[in-house]
Amino acid sequence: MLVNSFIDAFINTLAAEKGYSKHTLRAYRKDVQDFVQFILEEDDLSDEILLNLLQDKSRNPVREYVSKLVKSELKKRSIARKLSGLNTFFDYLVKIGKLKLNPGNGINIPKFEKSIPHFLSIDDLFRLLDSIKTDTWLEKRNLAIFETFYSTGVRVSEIEGLNLQDIDFNNNMIIVTGKGSKQRIVPIGTRALDAIKEYRKHFPKDFIPLFLNKNHTRLSSRSIRRTLEKLVIDCELNVPVTPHTLRHSFATHMLDSGADLRGIQEILGHASLSTTQVYTHVSMDKLNQVYDKAHPRS
Question: What is the CATH number of the domain that holds 16?
Answer without folding.
Answer: 1.10.150
